[in-house]
Design brief:
Radius of gyration: 19 Å
Strand content: 15-25%
Distance between the termini: 15 Å
Structural class: alpha/beta
Number of strands: 16
Helix content: 25-40%
Shape: globular
Bound molecules: nicotinamide-adenine-dinucleotide
Largest sheet: 8 strands, parallel
Length: about 325
C-alpha cells in the first residue's frame, strides 16, 4: 500500500481506535513490543532503526523499519522515513508492505489525542503547543478534533515558523498567539510538546494549575523537553512505562532519582478503566515515546479497509 493509499484510507477515528486497542492489549499483557534497534549507520548522518512486536489479541505481527535521514530536505523528502511489514503469525509469511510516513504521523497524533481524551482537565479550553515542525501540525489537528479548545498558544525556537499552526487554528475557529514559554505554561489547560530538543524547555515554575501535558518529542536517549522536577511532580502515564523510563521524557527524572519507573502508569490501563485517571486538580503527563505496535495496529486496520475497498496492489513475493 502506497502513501497515497494510506492517506485515502486512514483518518483520526481509525487511528484512535487502533492505538487505543493496542494500548489496552499492552496493558493486559496481550501485546509485546520487542527491543528497539536504533543505530547511526555512519552514512548521510542517518539513524536507522526498526521497531517490532506481536499483539496476540489482534494477531498483528510485524516490523516498522526506517529512521531519521536529516539531509532528506535537500532531496525534497521528509527526514523521517518508514515502511511497515506485516507478517502472518500463522506462517511467518509477509502479508503486506505498507508505506509508513502518513501512518506514523497519524498514530503519533492519535496517541496524544487519546491522552487528552482520557486525562485533560474538565472544561479545557486553552491548548499550548511547543514545536512547529512536521509533526506539530498533525498533533494540533488531532487535539482540536478531540477537545473543545477555543484558543491555541504556540512556542517555537524560531517563532516565524508558527504560520502553519496559525492557519490550522484559524481554520478551526480558534484564536492563536505565539507566546513565551512562561506564558504558555501558565495559561494552557493542555500542553503538547513536539520538538527535537536535547535540553529542558518548559520549567517546573512555568506550569500552573491542573494541566495535562502530552510530551511527544522525546523518543530517544538524551532528548529532553521538560524540567525533570516538572515530570516528577506530575502523575505520569505512558504507552509502555518501561520504555518511557529508558528513552522517553521520564528517562531524566528516573535517571536523577526524582521518581521511580513504577510510578509511571499505563495509559491503556486508564482506557480500560483498570487504572484511575486524573484526580481533579492534578498535573498529568503522558510520555508518548512511540511504540512500533501502534504502527502495526494502524497498518493492519488500513489493510483491512484496503481489502474491502479493493485498494492497494497485489504482489507475489
Ligand atoms: P521536525 O524536524 O520537523 O521539527 C523539529 C521541531 O523541533 C521544530 O519545531 C524545531 O524548531 C524544534 N527544535 C529542534 N531542536 C530544538 C532545540 N534544541 N530546542 C528547541 N526546539 C528545537 O521534526 P518533527 O517530525 O516535527 O518531530 C519532532 C520530534 O518528535 C522529533 O524529536 C521526533 O523524533 C519526535 N517524534 C516522536 C514520535 C513519537 O511517537 N513520540 C513520533 C514522531 C516524531
Amino acid at each position: 500500500m502506497s502513501e497515497t493509499d494510506v492517506a485515502t484510507l486512514v483518518d483520526l477515528d481509525l487511528a484512535l481506535e487502533a492505538v487505543e486497542a493496542v494500548f489496552m492489549a499492552m496493558d493486559a499483557g496481550e501485546a509485546d513490543a520487542f527491543p528497539v534497534v536504533r543505530e547511526p549507520i555512519g552514512y548521510q548522518e542517518a539513524l536507522y532503526g526498526y521497531k517490532s512486536g506481536f499483539d496476540r489479541n489482534a494477531m498483528t505481527l510485524g516490523v516498522k523499519v526506517g529512521g531519521y535521514w536529516p539531509r532528506n530536505g535537500d532531496r525534497g523528502l521528509a527526514s523521517h522515513q518508514s515502511t511497515v511489514l506485516l507478517v502472518a503469525p500463522e506462517t511467518g509469511q509477509c502479508n503486506a508492505l505498507v508505506a509508513g510516513n502518513h501512518l506514523t504521523a497519524l498514530r503519533t497524533a492519535a496517541a496524544a489525542a487519546s491522552s487528552i481524551r482520557h486525562l485533560a482537565p474538565a472544561g479545557a479550553r486553552v491548548l499550548g503547543i511547543l514545536g512547529a515542525g512536521h509533526q506539530a501540525s498533525w498533533q494540533l489537528e488531532a487535539a482540536l478534533d478531540i477537545g473543545a479548545f477555543t484558543e491555541v498558544l504556540a512556542w517555537n525556537r524560531r517563532p516565524e515558523r508558527t504560520q502553519a499552526l496559525e492557519a490550522i487554528a484559524e481554520r478551526r475557529g480558534c484564536s492563536f498567539r505565539p507566546v513565551s514559554l512562561p506564558e504558555l505554561g501558565e495559561a494552557s489547560d493542555v500542553i503538547i510538546t513536539i520538538t527535537s530538543s536535547f535540553a529542558p524547555l518548559l520549567e517546573d515554575v512555568h506550569v500552573v494549575g491542573p494541566t495535562h501535558i502530552a510530551a511527544m518529542g522525546t523518543d530517544t536517549e538524551g532528548k529532553q523537553e521538560l524540567d525533570p522536577v516538572l515530570v516528577a511532580r506530575a502523575r505520569c502515564f505512558a504507552e509502555l512505562p518501561s520504555q518511557s523510563a529508558r528513552l522517553g521524557e521520564c528517562q531524566h527524572a528516573v535517571g536523577e532519582g526524582l521518581m521511580a519507573e513504577s510510578e509511571i502508569a499505563s495509559l491503556g490501563g486508564v482506557i480500560a478503566e483498570r487504572v484511575p485517571g486524573r484526580k481533579a486538580s492534578e498535573l498529568t503527563l503522558f510520555d508518548g515515546s512511540g511504540v512500533g505496535l501502534q504502527d502495526l495496529s494502524l497498518a493492519r486496520a488500513a489493510l483491512e479497509r484496503a481489502r474491502v475497498r479493493g485498494m492497494g496492489r497485489r504482489l507475489d513475493l
